[in-house]
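Assemble and predict.
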Amino acid sequence: MRTKTLSGVLLVGLMGCAGASHSQQLVDAREVVKEAENGKAARYSPDDLYDAQKLLDQAEEAKDGSTLEEHYAYLADRQAREATANGLREHYLDQEAASEDEYLSLQEEGRREAERKLAQTERDLDDVRRQLEESDENSSILQQRQAELEKEKSQLKEELGEAKSRAEAAMASLEEMAQVENDERETRITLSGSVLFPTDKSTLLPIAENTLSTVADALADEVEGTTIVVEGHTDSRGTADYNKRLSKDRAESVKQYLVGQGLSEGQLTAVGKGEEEPVASNDNPEGRANNRRVELVVQRPEVEEGQKSGSTAHADQKSGSRESG
Amino acid sequence: MMEQWIRLAPAVLGMGCVVACGGASLPEEQLTAAKTSVSAAEAVGAKDEPSASLHLKMAQDGIDSAESAIDEKEYEKAERSLIQARYDAELAVALTRKEETRRKAEEAAAKVEKLRKEQEGQS
C-alpha cells in the first residue's frame, strides 16, 4: 500500500559535508533494504519495497559522503522498515483470518459432536425407560406372588387356629367328664370305670363312645413321639389274676376304640394294672368305685429350649393325624 | 535522472522545492505535511508502542530542528529535516498498526486454542 509518492523528495545538487562517517549510513541502509527484500515485504508490500529500493539507488548515485547521500540513505532506511512493517501486518491479518476460520470449524465440529452425544443420550434414556418398565412388570409379578403367599399364610393360620380351638374345646369338654391333670410333659386322664364298662365286662358301653370321642379329639393333635399308655385299674374284689386280666382287656378295648377314632396305633399301649394301684381305700363303696377306672397317661417327648409351651406347641404339630369323617 | 524525477515526482505543484531553486523558499508544504504525519502518528497511539515511539520522537525532533533552520533561513536544510521527519512519522504509524494487528492475530489464535482445549476436555 503506497502511503505517499516520492514527490518532493528528491533534492538535486546539494553538496553536504563530505566524510567517511556519512557512508556508514548508506552501508546500513543497504542492509535494511536487503532485510526487507528477504522478509514479508517482498510478498505483501512490494510497492513500499520498490520505493525503498529507488531511494537507495538515489543514495548510491549521490556523491560519496555528501549530505544528499546521507539524506536518501535515511529515507531508504525508513521506507524499507515501513515496507517490512506493512508486510508483517498483512501476514498477521492472514493469520487472524486463518484462526477465525479454524474457530468456526471447531465450533461446527463441536456442535456436531454435541448433537451426536445428544442422540446417544436419547438412546440411553430409552434403554433405561425400557428397563424401568420391565422392572415395574417384574415388581408387580412379585407383588402378586407375595399377595398370594400372604393369603395362603393367613389361611394356614386360620386352620391352625381352628385346630387349636378344637383341641382346647375338646380338652375343656373332657375336663367336664373326666379328671385331667396336666403338666408340660405329661397329661393324665382318669376315666371312671362306671361310664365305660358294664360290671365285670370289658366291652364298652354305648355311652362310653361320647366320652372316648372327646378323648380322641383332645389327643388328636399331640406332637410326634408322644406316647399314650392306657391303663386299666380295678378295685380289690375278686382275684388279683382275674382283675389283672379284666383290666388289661378293658384297656385294650379303650385302645381299639381310640385307634378306630383315628389315633395312631403305634402311639398307644394298653396295660392292665389290676388292683395294684388303687387311688382310694377299697373298704368302702365310694373308694372301690374310684378304684375302678381307666387312666390314659400321655407322655410328650423332650422338647428343645424355645419350643416349650403348653398345649399350643402340641397343636402345631400333628402326629398320627386324625382322619375326619 | 530527469526521467526518474518525472516518474517519481508527479506534477503536483507546491510540494516543495524539488530543484535547487537558487535561494530556495520556506518549505511550507513540507512543514504542513510533516506536522500532519506527526499528528496522525500521535492519533494512532504511536507514543504507547515502544518500537514506534522512537520514530515519533525523531519526527518531532526533526520538525523542531527544521523550525530552527527556517529561523536561520537555511531552507534546504529545513526541507531535508522535514522530509525525514515525515518518513519517521509514517514509519511510526506503520509500526503501531503492525503491532496492533499482531496482538489481534495472537488473540485469535489463543481463542482457537482455548476452544480446542475445552472440546478435548469434553470428549
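Residues 1-22 of chain B have pLDDT under 50 and may be disordered.
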